[in-house]
Structure formats: structure tokens, C-alpha cells
Design brief:
Blueprint: H1 2-27, H2 38-72, H3 84-94, E1 106-111, E2 114-117, H4 123-145, H5 151-172, H6 188-201, H7 203-206, E3 222-223, H8 228-238, H9 255-267, E4 282-283
Helix pairs in contact: 1-2, 6-9, 8-9
Length: 287
């Protein structure tokens, strides 16, 4: 009665655990995420442990039953080789000859008393070798006869697919900022925003009219780190000369605001400041 009760509990547990895990896998987006769903892992580990313990219990019970059977038949269990089946399997698997039969496979070669046995190749090695030949034939036909994609072609396809995904992402994200293709802004709203950012962060060093102070004059044609929207944007974003130039503003300002303030700075070209600072750097001409 006790045996049937244990089996019933075991089957019920497996059924409930299996149904619960199945529902978890279907319901959760990331069922194996340990931080989001720790209960799934707990249930899965418990399920596996119960199955393993049950199988261990079955093996122990069978061994005990076999032992009792042998004792009833008057056979000492210690004289029984438990691993006879394994030895038999290894013998078939390796085709090895026992020591008493090695005389049948001795080759007529003698090297200072060392004699050679003509053992058969182990089947596992032989079948693995045949498998490599079969793989080579399939590979040859697939890629060199039927024109399958080589690694170079697969790489090009993956790069093309990645570029397509990137373009799709850019189309779905209109506010994505592309530093490599930055453009000069000339609309009133952008320049107005750029002026506000300039007055708040830049005017203290470059003067409100861009004539220069601690920083260089921004109204002449001379530039220390190059003119144009790309150079001015990079200078504002990454900072000026190391040790004595302007700080990098990319940790403080958004890229969109850096673009607008750079556009505003370039709009000051050719204006007449009240107290212009002497020109620094070299004259820069747009290519």
C-alpha cells in the first residue's frame, strides 16, 4: 500500500510541475531570466531533483531485491561481477582480444624482444573517420558543386541585412542623431535655441557678441581647430586643445543643442563685435 501511495504522489507531482512549467514558458516573455522569474528556476530544479532521486531510489531498491534473491538461492553477492555487462560492451566496442588469445594476432616482427599485435582499429575511431569522409563529400557538393554560400558571401549578406535593419531603425526613430552627417542649421527656431545655449554656457569666455575674451574671437575667419559645422560641432562636443582649451560639453549638452549652438556660432561670422579679440589660429575656407 505504501508503495502505491508513493507512486501516486510522485506521478501527481510530475504532472502538476510539468503543467506549471509549461504555462510559465508560454506566459512569460523571458521564462529563463533568473532575476525576473526565479520561481521558474526553483520549480525546474525541484522537478529535476525529484526525478533523479526517484531513479536513485529505484536503482537501490532493485539492487537490494537482487541481493536478497541471491541470498535465498545460496549465492554470495560479493562473487557476482556487477560490471560484467560493461566489460562485455567494451570488448564488443573495441574488438579487443583477451591476453590468452593475443597469440592469434601477433605479427612476425621482433624489435629487441618487443613484438607487435595486429589489433583491429577501434570501431568508434573507424566510424568517426568514415563520418569525416562523408562530411567532406557533402561539404564539397554543397559549396563547390551546387554553389552554396561561402563564408565571404555569408558575411556580405549579414552586413547588408544589418545595414537594412539600421536604416529601418533610423526611419522609426526620427530623433536619432547622426554625428557623421551633421548639417548646418539656418532656421530661426534652431538659431534662437543656439543663441540661448551660447549665452548661458559660452558667452562668459567668448563674449555675448562672440568677440572673444578668455576664448578666441568667433566672428573672424581664423580658427584654431578648424571651421565649418563638423569641426565646430566636434570642438564644442569634445573640447578644445588639451590642457588650455575649452572643456568638452558632450556630458552637459545634448547633441541636438550642440548642433544648434555650433550653427549659431557660425552665424556670427562676418559680424562686428564691440571689442574684437586679435585673430588666433589659421584662416579656414570651406571646401
Amino acid at each position: 500500500m505504501k508503495k502505491y501511495f508513493q507512486s501516486t504522489i510522485y506521478i501527481l507531482f510530475l504532472t502538476v510541475a510539468f503543467i506549471g512549467l509549461t504555462k510559465a514558458f508560454v506566459s512569460y516573455e523571458n521564462p529563463f531570466d533568473l532575476y525576473e522569474n526565479p520561481l521558474v528556476w526553483i520549480a525546474l530544479i525541484a522537478f529535476i531533483l525529484v526525478v533523479i532521486l526517484k531513479e536513485i531510489l529505484n536503482i537501490v531498491s532493485l539492487e537490494q531485491a537482487e541481493k536478497l534473491k541471491l541470498e535465498k538461492e545460496g549465492i554470495d553477492p560479493s562473487t557476482i561481477d556487477k560490471y560484467a555487462w560493461f566489460k562485455k560492451m567494451m570488448k564488443l566496442f573495441t574488438k579487443s582480444k583477451p591476453i590468452e588469445e593475443e597469440s592469434e594476432i601477433i605479427i612476425d616482427h621482433n624489435y629487441d624482444g618487443i613484438r607487435e599485435l595486429d589489433n583491429s582499429l577501434p570501431p568508434w575511431w573507424l566510424y568517426l573517420f568514415y563520418g569525416t569522409i562523408l562530411f567532406a563529400a557533402i561539404y564539397l557538393i554543397r559549396f563547390h558543386v551546387l554553389g552554396g554560400d561561402t563564408q565571404a558571401v555569408e558575411y556580405e549578406k549579414e552586413v547588408a541585412a544589418a545595414k537594412a535593419e539600421l536604416e529601418k531603425y533610423k526611419e522609426s526613430t526620427p530623433n536619432l542623431f547622426d554625428v557623421a552627417n551633421i548639417e548646418l542649421l539656418a532656421d530661426d527656431a534652431s538659431l534662437k535655441r543656439g543663441k540661448a545655449v551660447f549665452n548661458l554656457n559660452c558667452a562668459s569666455c567668448h563674449a555675448p557678441d562672440g568677440g572673444g575674451g578668455i576664448g578666441p574671437n568667433l566672428t573672424d575667419k581664423n580658427w584654431i581647430l578648424g571651421g565649418g559645422i563638423q569641426n565646430v560641432f566636434n570642438t564644442v562636443s569634445n573640447g578644445g586643445r588639451s590642457g588650455k582649451g575649452m572643456i568638452a560639453w558632450n556630458k552637459t549638452l545634448k547633441p541636438q543643442d550642440i548642433q544648434k549652438v555650433a550653427s549659431y556660432v557660425l552665424s556670427l561670422q562676418g559680424t562686428t563685435p564691440a571689442n574684437p579679440k586679435k585673430a588666433e589660429g589659421e584662416i579656414w575656407e570651406e571646401e
